[in-house]
Automatic annotation (TrEMBL):
It comes from Rhinopomastus cyanomelas. It comes from the Eukaryota. This is NIBL1 protein. Residues 637-646 have a biased composition (Low complexity). Coiled coil: none annotated. Residues 60-184 form the PH domain.
Length: 749
């Protein structure tokens, strides 16, 4: 099937990217103008009271531990040691010893766009819906069977899926929190540091989708730019692929489902590679033209602003009356309902952040009273300093956003899902927690030089805690009000644009003649039109948020309430060198060797301990292949033992050999290519998740926000799965290249 479809995916990808790159080039000039204007004029809001940490997770890993992974190539469950580094990639090693010996990882996964599932039934429902009409009949084995009652599945609408399981419910909850934090971070993958490229990209995505009559929110605005563009292409390509290939798939239902997943993943990789090449070329061209464009902007800034205001006045005279009527009839009656739906869970989440921070500091203070000593303080502060990045402790805060429901408003305003708002609020929660912790430890570190006795230390901690909580209340109010305004605009503006399109869109072409040719790269009729529409509803949104603050129902400060900086030197302290509590106060003078430091890498989340004793995870050193050592022989696939269903069964099976999943059809194994030669140091290309930027202009702020270099220390680049892509002959997809007997590396987008 794919042999006949190699050309259409490439053609469709080229067509979509061609249209997108045209939009991107237009938006790049507008974003550059807005950035330079913002730099010159400035438009800062209230000054933050809390300090902001520049590199929060330097030399730390989020979590590491053992779990089982299902290997599709040989239908077996294998023991894996998983490390989650500071860039939130999932790095899977053969075992802990392989990690400590700096051998190549088995798998590198970037989880952008994935969903974390803890039920096989949830997974089967998604798989069945991805290929309509193909589902196992009653009594037939499903596509996946888990040997324990505690699965963890990473599902993606286009890319390959990953299957894990653990032994206890406690482990499952911890890993679920870790995986969800990885997804949340990787989804937010467009750099905040980019003040031109990021708003240009997100605006270009929005303009492209609106040209296809898609005005609502988009769930797959996930990951970095290449991933988002690949999702954009797959959104259009996949239905055609499904209708062309689906009827031709042969075999049992689960075999067809498995084949479809492999085909979708193979096409996604083809699209990704083509997208990366085309997007990089478009970026390079814009960067090449940037110096000349920026020179023109700085020279003619006043004339450009005057020309834009003249254009806006003409569009406003035509559009604003129609827009205001539409707002009055279709938007204004629902603003308060939308705001209330957003405020309740968000404010509860931020209140929980405050409570968790208060409890952690108070518990630390009580323990210092009982145990005493600066060494204990250093131990507790080392843990507290990364509280915001502790997925399990922060889970109670994040869970508050699960209550967000827009009910009938979701259909009225074409909001496909609330996930974009949930994740954005959760990211704000994590940032506010880290700001509060960093401010606390900076003030405490300053205070330590003045202390004489232990009682003074406890009183100082309490006094600093109270100061930081006041700053947190002010900053969290500012952040929440901004979030509410942006969310309301993100919901209502697309709805208004869709409503006004039939009567207003056709009138815009005649305004093009009002723009001087020299300024056409920096002023677009379409963008100016959207700014006019935004102005029509902005007053009502600002008034609604202001009234909510006056009521003090959700602990919001009024706009007139400005907290003056009571610590004039505090922000200077925040510019200093990061505090290393363990090194400064633990009394350890000698530095650890690199190997020992790696073995005892600072970890945010402690490893879970099983109450029943040691889990049967670790394999002996004889199971660890050294570079160049001969491969162990794999069991005969024709004589696969039955798959244990209980915890006791899996423990017994692990003592002898890896698990096999006898219930899963093994027909796919018949066409396996020969195993590649082991490569202990196989390179792994990586890419890194970043945070999403906000444009300095209101329309971009409102509409554009989306809700390893080596195996041992993944770099700040995103990881991409290293597999053989389909060649020019476009052979049918084989199971992915890495086999369990080799040292090759699987990586994921």
């Amino acid at each position: 099937c794919l042999t006949q479809l190699c050309s259409p995916p490439a053609e469709r990808t080229g067509k979509v990217l061609g249209e997108f790159c045209r939009c991107y080039k237009e938006q790049y000039g507008v974003a550059l103008f807005n950035s330079v204007r913002y730099e010159i004029e400035g438009n800062g809001g209230p000054q933050a009271q809390l300090l902001h940490r520049k590199i929060p997770l330097e030399d730390h890993v989020i979590y590491s531990g053992n779990l089982f992974q299902y290997i599709e190539e040989n239908k077996k469950w294998r023991n894996r040691f998983c490390v989650v580094p500071h860039n939130y990639g999932l790095v899977l090693y053969e075992n802990k010893l392989a990690y400590e010996r700096e051998l190549s990882p088995r798998v590198l996964i970037n989880s952008a766009g994935y969903k974390v599932l803890t039920s096989v039934d949830q997974y089967l429902e998604l798989v069945n819906s991805s290929l309509p009409g193909v589902a196992p009949k009653s009594g037939q084995s499903p596509i996946l069977k888990c040997p324990t009652d505690f699965p963890l599945i990473l599902w993606h609408p286009y890319a390959r899926h990953y299957y894990f399981c653990v032994m206890t419910g406690k482990e499952q909850e911890k890993w679920r929190a870790v995986f969800q934090d990885c997804v949340r971070h990787c989804n937010n993958g467009i750099s905040e540091d980019s003040k031109v490229e990021a708003p240009a990209f997100t605006d270009a995505i929005r303009m492209y989708r609106q040209s296809k009559e898609q005005f609502g929110t988009w769930d797959m605005l996930c990951g970095n730019e290449i991933q988002v563009l690949s999702n954009l292409v797959m959104e259009e390509l996949l239905p055609e692929l499904r209708s062309a290939i689906g009827p031709r798939l042969k075999g049992k239902a689960q075999e067809r489902q498995r084949t479809w997943i492999q085909i979708s993943d193979a096409v996604y990789r083809m699209v990704y590679e083509q997208t990366k090449a085309q997007y990089d070329a478009a970026m390079a061209k814009c960067e090449q033209e940037r110096p000349q464009m920026e020179s023109t902007i700085r020279t003619d800034m006043d004339q450009i602003i005057t020309s834009k205001e003249h254009l806006a006045s003409k569009i406003r005279a035509l559009i604003l009356p129609k827009a205001e009527i539409c707002v009055r009839n279709h938007v204004q009656p629902y603003i308060s309902s939308i705001l209330e739906a957003l405020m309740t869970p968000t404010s509860q989440g931020f209140a929980e952040v405050r409570e968790v921070f208060f409890k952690e500091v108070t518990d630390m203070n009580m323990n210092i009273v009982n145990e005493g000593g600066l060494e204990k303080l250093a131990e507790y502060m080392e843990k507290l300093s990364h509280l915001a990045f502790h997925p399990v402790k922060m889970q109670s805060c994040y869970e508050k956003m699960d209550q967000l429901k827009l009910e009938g408003l979701q259909q009225r305003f074409d909001v496909s899902s609330t996930s974009v708002f949930k994740q954005r609020a959760q990211i704000h929660m994590r940032q506010q927690m880290d700001d509060a912790v960093y401010t606390f430890e900076t003030l405490l570190h300053q205070e330590l030089g003045k202390l004489q006795v232990k009682d003074d230390l406890c009183k100082s901690i309490q006094r600093i805690l109270e100061r930081v909580l006041k700053k947190y209340d002010y900053d969290s109010s500012t952040v929440r009000k901004k979030f509410f305004r942006e969310a309301l605009l993100q919901i209502t503006i697309p709805f208004l644009l869709k409503k006004l399109a039939p009567t207003c869109k056709g009138e815009l072409a005649r305004f093009q003649e009002l723009i001087f040719e020299d300024f056409a790269s920096f002023i677009l009729v379409e963008n100016t039109y959207e700014e006019v529409v935004l102005q029509s509803v902005m007053k009502d949104i600002m008034q609604a948020v202001k009234e909510a603050a006056v009521q003090r129902k959700h602990n919001l400060y009024r706009d007139s309430m400005v907290l003056h900086n009571s610590d004039p030197n505090l922000h200077l302290l925040g510019e200093g060198i990061a505090i290393d509590w363990s090194e400064e106060y633990s009394g350890q003078q000698e530095s650890e060797p690199d190997v020992d430091r790696r073995r005892r890498a600072k970890q945010v989340v402690s490893v879970i301990q099983d109450d029943e004793g040691v889990l049967p995870y670790e394999v002996g050193t004889e199971g660890l292949l050294s570079p160049g050592s001969p491969e162990p022989k794999e069991p005969d696939p024709g004589a696969a033992p039955s798959s244990p269903d209980s915890v006791e069964g899996i423990r017994e099976a692990l003592a002898e050999e890896p698990l096999t999943n006898a219930d899963v059809p093994s027909g796919a194994n018949a066409q396996h290519a020969p195993s590649p030669k082991p490569r202990a140091n196989a390179p792994a290309e990586s890419r890194v998740p970043h945070a999403t930027a906000a444009s300095p202009t209101p329309i971009a702020e409102a509409l554009s926000a989306p809700a390893g270099t080596s195996c041992f220390q993944p770099s700040d680049k995103e990881t991409g799965e290293e597999v053989a892509l389909l060649g020019t002959e476009c052979n049918p997809p084989q199971p992915m290249s890495t086999t369990e007997s080799g040292e090759g590396v699987q990586t994921e987008f």
